[in-house]
Amino acid sequence: MIFFVTSAQNQSDIIKEEAAQAGCTDIKPFVGGVEFQADLKAAYTFCLTSRVSTRVLLGLYEEDGIESTDDLYAASVRIPWEDWINPQLSFSVTETVKHTDWLNNSHFAAIRLKDAIADRIRSVYDGERPSVDVENPDVTFHLHLDDGHICWYVDFSGKALYKRGYRTDVTDAVLSEYLAAAVIWRSDWRKALDDEPGKRPVLLDPFCGAGTIAIEAALIASDTAPGIVTPGRTFAFQKLPGYDKELFESIKADLVAKSKEGRKNDIKIYAWDISPKAIRIAKANAQAAGVADLISFGVQDFTDITADEVPAPRGYVITDPPYGVRMEADEPMRLLYQQMGEKFSSLFLGWHIAILCGDQQLLSYVDMKPDRTNTVNNGGIPCQLAHYYVFSAEEKAERTARAEARKAERLAQPLNDTAQMVYNRLKKNLDAIVPLMEKQGVTCYRIYDADMPEFNAAIDMYEKNWIVLSEYEAPEEIPEEDAARRLQDLVDATERATGIDRDKIFVKTRSRQSGKKQYMKFNDTGKYFIVHENGCKFLVNFSDYLDTGLFLDHRPIRAEICEMAKGKRFLNLFCYTGSATVEAAKGGALSTVSVDASSTYLDWAQQNMRLNGYTSMNHFFYRSDVLQFLYDTYDRFDLIFCDPPTFSNSKGRNSFDVQRDHVDLIKACMMHLDTDGTLIFSCNFRRFHLAPFLDEDYEIEDITPQTIGDDFQRDPRIHYCFLIRHKAVRSAIPRFKEKVTLKAVLKKKENKEEDDDQ
């Protein structure tokens, strides 16, 4: 007999192993399920022992060339349904339809099959036909139609094979039994079960909820088949012709004996939850499953545990903590994951950790690097199962010693001549720039900017702890091996000159950006670090994007925004990660509005605001094309910061070219600028030139030199910056004649106004 077993996403490999253990043969995994051959013994065994499958279907017939509902009916009515059903039984029909253009409604296929079955039985039984019962049928048939190929099945197991029957109650967010079993199967705990005969490794679920993971683990550890958990449980095959009751009862008896023997194992499973109600429900469910004596339950706030409360020196954590999809995601949720990471990394040394989460961003707050991940689906929510191993103190010391030895060996080697040249230049730069930055209180700054033509790169240092080395793409005429060698020399020299470990030097290659490439995501680590500037904190990401999330060359502009923002209505256009908005809030802005077309960057901006404690109702974020936002809104602002990209060509909106479109952009900004307000317009296009006729309509001051930090003096074209105001306040704006700060300019303006009054 041929069977098809349905499964959830990415679980076919588990079912394949379950089928082999049950004695099935010719096992073939497919997307969404597994096909195999089995006799009644193997089929009964599989239904009783499978922990992950959702439904077992027995194949009846198949046919090709189905091109219409009439073909479907004609083929179906020829099948001897009387072998499976009679007028005294009820039936229902389910369907799966794929790639079938001629069928607008997939359910209509089930209706045509239902008609064919009823007509066939009526013809055999002199006009009598079985009734249809969709809730509790005696027999269920299934139709699978895919691009003209049709398969007919009879339901062998029943629709809910995965339901064990032990749930007496549930909590707000419930993990299905089959997914809990799959999560356990994916973890290292399953692999360690047979390491020591008669002893099962310790398992802990610190967010147990209704107890599903702990209960499924207890069933696995005690070799208890899920099909025998509930006494008297029935399966669909027990109502089908050919049911062998004696064989079925014999298989069940063997499984019961195996479970009794398995309970002699040394099983240590712990289930914690902060909710007393959840623990009460979990205990009741475990009692119904017959494994309550194998699990130690406890009301426990995981974020408050101490080293003495860790249940064993080594073990396994498998857990499904809340992740804000079924429950509201907010700052406490992020804090929870941060605290989880801290507890795991500091208290669970030598433990294996498996965390199921439907929000990859939350997983990044755990602040541990997973060894591997699995993608699963939990009630329609795509989830990541992240696996970690926390090194013991001895293992950490050993790894550190090996790393230090490798580093010492590497640093003991002399640099080659070219790397030595770069090293000398970097040391010279560091000797000059570091004391200056320390005096200014700056912790993130540039230490090299293509100083040597043959090493065309920019090197930025963050907090004296990380390096971002951005190499500008070599011309095509440079051989690839030469370019790679130069880059290696640059990395060697940077490590030697800064003393920063190589694993904290992030290398990127910059090329001319156009269209969507400017926002391309390179990796998906979700790893963020906190850096400081002007008393503010910012999240940066060194590996996932071309830029880190903080434009270091704009540091002076952001500082001046902080000085200018007090009591102002502030608008940040092309806000990116909102660093200017944070500075405006710090400076006492009355309100802030941040606009960007990227939801990723807007989320990042809101995280930066929350990180600095700015969570009031006066801060607004809009995902929108900037020009469209300006044309569609009527609000006015006292201070506007506009820092457009050089070029943008995102899906769903017109392309933007800063040289071509800056006039329209500036005019749109000025429509929203209050009479005595200030627009700060900045851009990074190296060949940018402001349209000269704008000076006829507005008072414009080129303040670029004053906004280039000391660490960027080697590249005065890193950006351009202008103060733009309405003509009505022309006389109030002085012209820069020397390098001064914006704060000084405004102070001169105030002094001049006082003189005029006198």
Verbal overview:
- It is globular and about 95 Å long.
- The longest helix has 24 residues, at 417-440.
- Helix 1 (12-22) packs across helix 2 (40-49) and helix 13 crosses helix 14.
- With 758 residues, it is an alpha/beta fold.
- Strand 5 (90-98), helix 4 and strand 6 form a beta-alpha-beta unit.
- It has an eight-stranded mixed beta sheet with strand order 2-3-1-4-8-7-5-6.
- The model is unreliable at 512-519 and 730-746 (pLDDT under 50).
- It is built from 20 helices and 30 strands.
Summarize the structure.
Helices cover 34% and strands 23% of the residues.
- The count of β-strands is 30
Distance between the termini: 104 Å
In the sheet with the most strands, the strands line up as: 2-3-1-4-8-7-5-6
Determine the strand fraction and express it as a percent band: 15-25%
Described by the principal axes of the CA atoms, the overall outline is globular
Helix content: 25-40%
Unreliable runs: 512-519, 730-746
* Count of DSSP-assigned helices: 20
Q: Report the radius of gyration as a whole number of Å.
A: 34 Å
> What structural class should be given to the helix and strand makeup?
alpha/beta
Let me know the average pLDDT.
88
Major beta sheet, specifics? 8 strands, mixed
